[in-house]
Design brief:
By secondary structure, this protein is α+β, with helices and mostly antiparallel strands. Helices cover 57% and strands 11% of the residues. It has a 4-stranded mixed β-sheet with strand order 1-4-2-3.
């Protein structure tokens, strides 16, 4: 009888220990999810909204989506071309508009590579717009490497959010601003 009681108590202790370990693992998982930067989801939602804008709405609001890139790629993603066509349409109609194109990279790679790839991404956008009839002198390109992240989240989605090209319309003359 004592042996049976000992086994029951040992089993109860073991069961409690397993439940405690499982609870700790669940808390860690919840902590990881909680720590994911909200900027990642907010930026994706904003970009989705801005992609759907008409060209006239884009011109009025001057809010343009960021184009995110796959890892180690300088080729514009396929979904970017309809957006770039809208930008070209706007700039062809409004000759006073200039465009600033800013390339960014994630934290993977050394500084030299990240500056190069961010500049190459922005230059690819400029090349496409020039091929659509926009004068090259109306577009300024900058590459910031990993120096201006939107998020410090190092997850796959966080890094993808930082691998982006941003656009800004301006009517100012280049010499007075840039």
């Amino acid at each position: 009888m004592k042996l049976k009681t000992i086994f029951i108590l040992a089993g109860a202790v073991l069961l409690c220990a397993c439940a405690s370990a499982q609870k700790q693992e669940e808390e860690k998982t919840q902590e990881r999810v909680y720590k994911q930067d909200k900027v990642v989801a907010q930026q994706a939602k904003l970009n989705n909204k801005l992609y759907k804008q008409s060209a006239s709405r884009m011109y009025k609001t001057r809010q343009l989506p960021a184009i995110t890139y796959e890892f180690d790629s300088v080729r514009p993603p396929e979904y970017a071309y309809p957006f770039l066509d809208k930008v070209a349409q706007i700039m062809n109609v409004h000759e006073n508009l200039h465009l600033v194109v800013e390339g960014h990279a994630d934290i993977v790679g050394n500084d030299e590579y990240n500056y190069w790839i961010s500049s190459a991404r922005a230059a690819a956008m400029k090349s496409y717009l020039v091929s659509r009839g926009i004068r090259a002198d109306r577009i300024h390109v900058y590459g910031y490497g990993a120096d201006r992240p939107l998020t410090l989240d190092t997850s796959f989605e966080g890094r993808k959010t930082n691998r982006r090209v941003e656009f800004k319309f301006t009517t100012r003359e280049w010499n007075s601003v840039y």
